[in-house]
Design goal:
The protein is α+β, with helices and mostly antiparallel strands and about 200 residues long. The chain folds into two domains: about 30 residues; about 170 residues, 3-Layer(aba) Sandwich (Glutaredoxin). The chain contains five helices and eight strands, in the order H-E-E-E-E-H-E-H-E-H-E-E-H. An eight-stranded mixed beta sheet has the order 1-8-7-4-5-6-2-3. The N and C termini lie far apart (about 50 Å).
Length: about 200
């Protein structure tokens, strides 16, 4: 009995230690397991609006054709709102181009939406290519067609929002990040693996 009592006390003490350590680290576990990826380059990932539907307002292709995000339904998309007059936007664009090259497929695509003025469209196309993002197709939402910006809840630039194949938001990141970092690639891979499992199931 003494040995069993000792083991019991040890287990109780162990549980108490784990509880205290866990409480000190920040309380109860995250309800969304993807929140574990909010570290390093992706420390600013925000899951507060996860589950919200993607906006339905159109953006415009380089030739002026209107397109809605519904065109990417069935694919995981990283929508990046950027502008040529925004230094952090230009700073992160090469990494978005690298992410598209590394992971672009029938299952995933980076969608960059310029918020430049209509008269600056050609320059924005030029800058997208100069910044190493020629694999990303060009889209624009000029000030007179800002509905998608407002509907997506974008408050500043750059803002990147990840939408799942179902058109629902997964997470967003306000500000620039290195989307070619190990943290970012790992995050995208985790999301694609989860989407593949859901599709198979």
């Amino acid at each position: 009995m003494t040995r069993l009592a000792f083991i019991g006390l040890f287990l109780v003490a162990l549980v108490a230690i784990v509880y205290v350590a866990f409480s000190a680290a920040g309380g109860k576990p995250a309800s969304n397991p993807l929140e574990a990826h909010a570290r390093g380059e992706l420390a600013k990932l925000n899951f507060a609006t996860a589950g919200d539907a993607e906006p339905t307002a159109p953006v415009f292709a380089a030739d002026g054709t209107p397109v809605t995000l519904d065109a990417w339904k069935g694919k995981t998309v990283l929508v990046n709102f950027w502008a040529t007059w925004c230094s952090p936007c230009e700073r992160e664009m090469p990494s978005l181009g690298a992410l598209q090259k590394a992971r672009g497929s029938d299952a995933f695509e980076v969608v960059a939406i310029s918020v430049d003025a209509s008269e600056d469209k050609d320059y924005a196309v030029q800058r997208l290519n100069e910044l190493g993002a020629s694999d990303i197709s060009f889209h624009i939402a000029p000030p007179e067609n800002y509905e998608i910006v407002y509907d997506a809840g974008v408050k500043g630039f750059p803002t990147s929002i990840l939408y799942g194949p179902d058109g629902k938001e997964i997470a967003r990141l306000e500000g620039d990040a290195d989307w070619a970092s190990l943290e970012a690639i790992g995050f995208i891979d985790a999301i694609l693996a989860k989407a593949a499992l859901a599709k198979a199931g």
